[in-house]
Amino acid sequence: MAKVKPFKGVRPPKHLVEDVASRPYDVLNSEEARKEAEGNEKSLYFIIKPEINFEVGTDEHDPKVYDKAAENFKMFQEKGWLVQDDKDHYYIYAQTMDGRTQYGFVVAAWVNDYMEGRIKKHELTRRDKEEDRMKHVRVNNANIEPVFFAFPDNEELEAIIREVTKNEPEYNFVAPDSFGHTLWTINDEETIKKITEEFEKIPHLYIADGHHRSAAAALVGAEKAQNNPDHKGDEEYNYFMAVAFPASHLKIIDYNRVVKDLNGLTEEEFLDKLRKNFDVEEKGTEIYQPNKLHNFSLYLGGKWYSLTAKPGTYNDEDPIGVLDVTVSSDLILRDILGIHDLRSDKRIDFVGGIRGLDELKRRVDSGEMKMALALYPVTMDQLIDIADSGNIMPPKTTWFEPKLRSGLVIHKLD
Prior knowledge:
The protein is of the alpha+beta class and 414 residues long. The protein contains 13 helices and 21 strands. Strand 9 and strand 10 form a beta hairpin.
């Protein structure tokens, strides 16, 4: 059963939230963060991308960079740019994109649920990335940024969302990327008790986005428990911050591929090889969007094509084999183009669906890439099936949008 609790969030005063809040650390590089923070000393980037405090080219993994993050976190609190709530709260966080709003609970999730597999993952993590985030959590003694969870729909929790969001929000703003962000605080003891009880009825939570942050937060919590001779189990470090959304609120968007060459094939030879496993239909110069599972969109030589996988080329009974990312990786990228490792092969790149299929066309038309492949998005049901079966998704399978805004709530570990 999922164990969560309320906590005393560290947050910006209402009039400063737009100055402090930022995009997550891992969706932009150092120079982009430096530019976005320019002229705004209150930007959270000075804590989550602390290399921007130093000259261009400073190694983001230098110990002085982590130390600067902690120094700035302390300074933000001393200046009143971040203030800790005086009692435990849950929070409801809403994100709005393209007229659609999703509502999640900001909670402190139990480290043991992660360590013992009740918080389920669907992606592999890299130890170097885990260690980077662990250092950041250690030096700040806080989860500065939340992780992104999903959970099976629960009508009682939906009713709480409906009731709480009738009230005036604490924050309500539109970020520069045009996505809306709204936050309500919950400090009513009866409602807090009900939220805790309802989460206890949920067998598993699922990491939607933020696998490295989840691993780092849980590992630091476990580390603190092991190093504390007086450990009792109720310390704040036994928990880490997450925003948990009902699964039906979330929408996974496509995650597409662009490839630099055809592995020595001509365009006609490539199309001919595709016909072995796909029904290939030329669609002309107008952008073609995949319209169902096992239907793909190919852009090649200034034309769009529909590729529909033939029966027998996928396995609907296998949670991994049914994925279009598996079908395309095996039958197109590996078997025809000779791309065996999506994580390391320099001939392939990945484009989040938030950029649209225009971006695929642009990168091919520019001559940078030879072909583009658009995939039908993975569903939340597929993600949950894979996590429940203990399987791991292939690389670059899911893209969630909008991303959680960082800096709305921070969780201290003491």
